[in-house]
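Notes, Module 5: Reading structure tokens.

Key idea: the token line is not a picture. It is a compressed description, and you learn to read it the same way you learned to read a sequence, by spotting repeated patterns. We will look at two proteins. The first is printed below with its tokens.
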Amino acid sequence: MQNRITELFNITYPIIQGGMIWVSGWRLASAVSNAGGLGLIGSGSMYPEVLREHIQKCKQATSKPFGVNVPMLYPDIEKIMDIIVEEGVKIVFTSAGNPKTWTHFLKEKGITVVHVVSSVKFALKAEAAGVDAVVCEGFEAGGHNGREETTTFTLIPMVKEQVNIPVIAAGGIGTGRGMLAAMVLGADGVQMGSRFAATIESSAHENFKNTIVEVKDGDTHLTLKELAPVRLVKNKFYNQVQELYEKNPTVEEIKELLGRARAKRGMFEGDLEEGELEIGQVAGLIHEIKSVQQVIDEVIEEFTKIQSGLSVL
């Protein structure tokens, strides 16, 4: 299955694992890379030296390409970028910031750079900044999301129409059927987060993994747009957020409720009541915690089977 994405990253399948906070450590990233996709270490929940440790362990666990996802709104960004260069990481996905800020620096070091966008406007800015590809993340996604609320399957063809660099679809994709649909619409590859969050190798707490399996359609909601839009499972904390919104709160009041380490509390420590539980709408299609190898094998098998049955392709 060779195309622009597999060639860009030197991988077998055009499947990228989302670099999720508190979920995407070296075990998950190396497992995805070993299975033929591109694993990403999620640096957003790591202190710089913790990231260094994860990179070093990932290099020991796989000889295949892997990368690091860097949300640029997090502190210590300079230290994180220096460590990425020092440790010889060859692929970086940036998000939540201006791609101009770090793309030139990384490209000078021979690093392949991909930027996550939620609109055509930002895709064009990323291309102009010199990135090698863009991840187009739709409204369905978990984690930090775009304020435009554009769905993945409308965003992909609109971006594909405007840019010349490879396009990776993200948001609402967790099956071979979804992967095929995204690629028919113009994506060169797909990024999956939620599906990999509910794997054996994910560093998420077992409570959170089990919650992902239990989530049905309508059980998540995009909120906290005043800070950074995030899709949350509807739990006690989510209800507190909604109650606060009824009072027309200030940004400071929302920040006070959110507090510190709320996502760590829910996703990594397993507090299903007071924790922030970030997951995408595709969780409604996730019914079992599986190994990374099982997930990728099943996605490719379904993709190939359906593709071969469509005469138009």
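Here is the second protein, with the sequence above and the tokens below, as before.
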Amino acid sequence: MDDNLIKQISLFAENKPGRLANIASKFKEESINIRAFTIAEAGDFGIIRMVVDNPDNAHRVLHNAGFTVSETDVLGIEMKDVPGQLATIADLLGKHNVNIDYAYAFVTRTEKAFLIVRVSDIEKAIKILNEGGINLLTMNDIQSI
């Protein structure tokens, strides 16, 4: 099951001009590629969540730059880029009492969409999604997207 765990980097950052540019520049210097990210604003601060191709290096770079940073296990779900795919996944998890704490998604030019989710019970979610024929991503998949 560990193959299906994606490491997400989360950091607490001041909500001010140039902060994201600073983070992105540090990643550029270290050749860290951001695959997906979201920012949740909370007044003067925000939480940036991201999936990168090298999470251990990203964590080190951000920590050394003085950011409050953590790693969280999330799931990466591959979907067809058609209406109803999110409903299928959300319904499958909901019927088995697995809550989606938060999610963010991105689409590629290959008619695929990818959903990053944090769930209330990750091991149960992996089992349910696998049994439901849903393709889960690995860190190798993230690195090659």
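Summary for the second protein:
- Helices lie at 19-29, 55-64, 85-95, 122-131, 139-144.
- The chain has two domains: 2-73, 74-144.
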